[in-house]
Amino acid sequence: MAVNESVDILNSAYLAVEYIDSFLPDNPLQQPFKNAWNYMLDNYTKFQIATWGSLIVHELSYFLLCLPGFIFQFIPYMQKYKIQQDKPETWEKQWKCLKTLLFNHFCIQLPLICGTYYFTEYFNIPYDWERMPRWYMLLAQCFGCAVIEDAWHYFLHRLLHHKRIYKYIHKVHHEFVSPFGMQAEYAHPLETLILGTGFFIGIIVFCNHMILLWAWVICRLMETIDVHSGYDIPLNPLHLVPFYAGARFHDFHHMNFIGNYASTFTWWDRIFGTDYQYVSYQEKEKNQELLTEKKSN
């Protein structure tokens, strides 16, 4: 009975969003995107799209999303938004990060990407334009993927902090006490595989079109680069996502080492009390700000 009620609620929600969507103006980018998508289908094989297309989407998204944070270090005005202002980025750290990053991308992640075609064939996932889900379905699916990945990340990330195994795997990622965007995927190869598994679980659950693979890649990179950016930028649109952790939340994990283990949302840390040091730290900062204001007045 409860299952039927849940299905009815989801169907009603879907119809409501579809009804609202019918009143929205046509997206001017839809036709050019449709033409580009169909051109891709006509000129490349499924294997080329799934493999090299996925690699291009990942690399372009990753380094383009890292670019703003990289530029911020050269803009004095942006330094007031840097969370750990006493620990600036250095060329030495960034160069070391880039070398490890390229190794992980092409020696660890690329072989996994090569399996994308076989994954889509095994589960009979379509590529054609006609069966591409609407934008609101894609957003809902990406959110579902994020919820699943966040749960996986919390428990496996917390396990990687166990004193018996930390120094062998996760210590690599914690080389930088003050993170920066490019460091998001700076990790031991085993960590890339262990925590990266969470990325694929949501795909197995929700994927009904090739476009979701790419949309979820972009969403996940957007989130992880943002929380590793080291900057708490005002009017960040990601803060509109319910229970979104953000840069300050994860920056504290790198600074403090203990707590704040989740990747995207705050609920697992709240449920298990692993955010108590972060909450205490925030309260101390607020009290310090109040004292500073009183003295200045």
**Oligomeric assembly:** single chain
Uncertain regions spanning at least 5 consecutive residues = none
The number of domains: 1
What share of residues is helical? 55-70%
β content, as a range? Answer: under 5%
Query: What sequence of helices (H) and strands (E) makes up the elements?
Result: HHHHHHHHHHH
Overall structural class, as computed from helix and strand content, comes to: mainly alpha
Our count of helices gives 11
Sheet having the most strands: none
Radius of gyration equals 21 Å
Q: Could you tell me the mean pLDDT?
A: 90
* Count of β-strands: 0
The backbone outline, from C-alpha atoms, is globular
GO molecular function, one term: oxidoreductase activity
Keywords: Membrane, Transmembrane, Transmembrane helix
Pfam families: FA_hydroxylase
GO cellular component, one term: membrane
Account of the protein in words:
The chain is mostly helical. The protein has one domain (44-296). The chain has eleven helices and no strands. It starts with a helix and ends with a helix.
Sum this structure up briefly.
By secondary structure, the protein is mainly α. It has eleven helices and no strands.
Task: Spell out the blueprint of helices and strands.
Elements: H1 2-23, H2 30-43, H3 46-72, H4 91-113, H5 116-122, H6 135-160, H7 189-206, H8 210-227, H9 247-256, H10 267-272, H11 276-296
Helix pairs in contact: 3-5, 3-8, 6-7, 6-8
Brief descriptors of the model:
single chain; mainly alpha; membrane; 11 helices; 297 residues; transmembrane helix; 65% helix
